[in-house]
Design goal:
alpha+beta; six-stranded mixed sheet; 7 helices; 25 strands
């Protein structure tokens, strides 16, 4: 978002034991310092950064770990947390080429079951020497409807200079989310703010001081591969994040701040802080670090070609369509061209999305969008960053792609679509209604916005009338870049009932309070 400043103004005892062991193995740098974690050179390999599971389906999933030195990754899975009977999975040899991170793919898992896992790191020269195992757990998607589905979503982490504050006990909102015991967490982008340094302290308008845990890499903008790796590591310094990761699998997408505010392919940055100004070079380095620090099934090593957009099938009730509105877009502009085949998705991704939505037999099709549709997000005085550009008339520019997609959904009678996003740093609910729109060849649908999870809060933006959005709920601060001490972190919850198929969306804030809820009925083209 262009108005964001670049500078800061369950009873699962085994999981908790493993996560706490990881916390004990990783010492936080002193507040105000810039020391990065050091690699131990003696003893067995350690996994102090915790574990993560990602892109879990009914029969598969990915497990992630980071070692403190070269090691062989080994994963053991079990139906019980006692690990009385285990299946062993031999993972990669991790080393400096991946910043000592590794991912192991699990296949042939039973559907609808709680999977307990532990990761061991073995000395490459002596496989009998392994470090302390780090444990985690996740549920595979159910093959049937019984039991339903529940997941959370949010985005925007460590932005605008608001980092891990030890005075607040770190990012406590992750404990609120973990307590809800969701099947997975959808992170809607801006996992890091590569262009927003984290400084030792920030003084608030009322005189209070926000203190940050700092590291060398996060004390400056990210340009080198090492800088980007350090930015992704930063969030893992928080023990709440590591505990959450050990219990809740993720589906992760990216957006602009993984690289630079409002970047697009081919852009040359106008930012004096950078010596490398080619956004394509920076984005390639960031995507490599992104693929190293998140278990994503369509990125290396699982997919050598690599892409962020993908569909994750969560049984008969839900398919999640993860979009990439960053990599294939055209340049930010006034966005009023009458003909636009590139748009915000690119032609190939749009064709993929239409094809996969048509093939989906799930009751609900969640479109995980890293940017909103009808909220006007500007980029400077005349250009625009998202889909909407403030002209309430017929579709122009990037709106043409969205109009084509919405028309496809209507005419193919694709039921149960809804859009989830973050990006704008407040929480809201919009209902898109053809009767209120300039473009009317679509069926009604909902868009729900949540976030930030750990960044600055911003005022609500204007609505663009092209697709007829009606804002049913909004909660946003009255000024720009409010700290998490002033504006609470926001996250959303989606719960699908296995019996009725009803889908309920709840917009929540830190502490778990429900701000807004809406229940949608299954089997309809529009809501």
């Amino acid at each position: 978002m262009s108005h964001r400043p670049s500078d800061p103004l369950p009873g699962r005892r085994g999981v908790l034991r493993g996560a706490l062991a990881a916390s004990a193995g990783l010492a936080l740098p002193a507040v105000g310092g810039v020391a990065a974690p050091a690699f131990a050179l003696s003893g067995p390999p350690g996994a102090g950064w915790g574990v993560q599971a990602g892109d879990v389906t009914a029969h598969s999933g990915l497990i992630w770990v980071r070692s403190d030195r070269p090691a062989r990754m080994i994963v053991e899975t079990s139906a019980t947390e006692s690990f009385r009977r285990t299946t062993r999975w031999h993972g990669p040899l991790v080393g400096p080429d991946t910043d000592f991170t590794g991912t192991t793919r699990l296949r042939g898992l039973p559907s609808g079951e709680q999977i307990h896992y532990r990761v061991l790191l073995a000395d490459p020269d002596d496989p009998r020497r392994t470090g302390e195992p780090v444990t985690g757990t996740f549920r595979t998607a159910a093959a049937g409807r019984r039991g339903g589905v529940r997941f959370l979503w949010s985005g925007d982490i460590a932005g605008q200079g608001w980092g891990i504050n030890p005075d607040r006990g770190g990012n406590r909102v992750y404990e609120d989310m973990r307590a809800l015991d969701p099947d997975f967490f959808l992170c809607s982008g801006d996992n890091i703010y590569a262009d927003n340094p984290i400084l030792p302290s920030v003084t608030l308008p009322d005189g209070r001081v926000w203190r940050n845990v700092t590291t060398e890499e996060k004390s400056k903008v990210a340009q080198t591969l090492g800088d980007f790796r350090g930015a992704f590591r930063y969030n893992l310094l928080d023990e709440h994040v590591r505990r959450f990761n050990a219990q809740v699998p993720t589906i992760t997408q990216w957006d602009d701040h993984e690289v630079h505010n409002n970047w697009y392919p081919g852009q040359i940055l106008d930012d004096d802080r950078y010596t490398e100004k080619n956004a394509d070079v920076l984005s390639a380095r960031s995507l490599r670090a992104f693929s190293e620090y998140f278990p994503v099934s369509t990125l290396p090593p699982g997919d050598k070609d690599g892409r962020v957009y993908r569909v994750l099938r969560q049984g008969p009730l839900l398919d999640v369509f993860v979009l990439d509105m960053r990599t294939y877009r055209n340049a930010n502009s006034p966005d009023r061209q009458p003909d636009d085949t590139t748009g915000i998705l690119g032609a190939e991704q749009l064709a993929w999305l239409k094809r996969e939505l048509s093939r989906s037999r799930a009751t609900w099709k969640v479109i995980a969008s890293d940017m909103p549709l009808g909220l006007v997000v500007s980029d400077g005085a005349t250009n625009f960053e998202a889909v909407a550009q403030g002209d309430p008339g017929a579709p122009l520019g990037r709106e043409l792609q969205i109009a084509e997609l919405l028309r496809h959904i209507k005419h193919r009678r694709i039921t149960g679509t809804l859009w989830l996003t973050a990006d704008v740093h407040y929480t809201s609910a919009q209902h898109y209604e053809p009767s209120n729109a300039a473009f009317q060849d679509f069926e009604p649908f909902w868009e729900f916005v949540s976030g930030p999870l750990a960044a600055g809060g911003f005022q609500a933006t204007k609505l663009d009338g092209t697709f007829g959005p009606r804002q049913v709920f909004v909660k946003a601060p009255s000024r720009a870049n409010t700290s998490p001490m002033e504006t609470p972190p926001y996250f959303g919850e989606v719960e699908i009932d296995g019996g009725s198929g009803e889908l309920t969306v709840r917009l929540r804030q830190e502490g778990g309070d429900v701000l807004f809820a809406r229940t949608l009925q299954p089997g309809r083209v529009g809501q």
